[in-house]
Amino acid sequence: MTDPLAKVREAALELPGTEERLSHGQPTFFVAGKQFAQFRDNHHRDGMTVVCVRVSSLDEQAMLLDADPATYSKPAYLPSWISINLAGERVNWDHVGDRIAKSWELAAPRRFLEAGGR
Hints:
Layout: H1 4-13, E1 18-23, E2 26-31, E3 34-41, E4 49-54, H2 58-67, E5 72-73, E6 81-85, H3 93-107, H4 110-115
Antiparallel strand pairs: 1-2, 2-3, 3-4, 4-6, 5-6
């Protein structure tokens, strides 16, 4: 059985300048002090296991929500972000890693972007 936190941690920590620390009791990943991913397991008893990541715009968020509501949801307290469902055997971990890397790119300063992400 796959450990979702271990998979999220692996994808996030391979990116330059990344650190993990707790934020609001959740394992959260930062680059240069900016949050780019947060793992949530049964957050406020919602019964969901997700990773929350940044999106480029509210339009992108809406498009993802419309395209695949089984995979994506709107996270509480993070208005310009998206949650990716990590429950079940059908999780596309390559896609999750790509979304984490894209979120990192949206948060990272230029010096890290020039060093290269994934």
